[in-house]
Amino acid sequence: MCCVCTAKIIKLNNIVQFQYNFLYRSVYFFTFLETKAKHTHRGALLQAVVAERHVNITKMVKRMGISRGTYYNHIADPELPFEQLVKYGKAIGYDFSQQLPGIRPVVLEEPEGIYKTPKTIEEAIEQRDYWRERYYRKVDEYNDLAKKHMRVLSGEKPEE
Hints:
mainly alpha; flat
């Protein structure tokens, strides 16, 4: 092989290497952009909502029963669990399901009249009875589920 042919081959290799690097970097760059658009930094989203709504952080963390340090750790976490975001949403009155489709919409208002302060003894007794019955129903539901679970664990077929 002559020197000219060797020089042309080296030049051709350099061009091919350059094109390969260019295409590789382009694909990486656009893949990164696409990925970044699909994944939201949940901690940053929380921080933005808190700032936008002018929420008092001290009151919010006190309401949630966590420390300020925990809150700051949460806003730094890009993969903040949905359950934690829902808790923050309830504390600040915000529904994160609009920005994050993986979260179910949250009911932020409590039903009217359930928590009102009774004005008479009759209203107080009525409220007490309401909550007692509701508690008993929930205990019965829990017991039924526990029985089904025990049947499944023991190998029996659960009743439908």
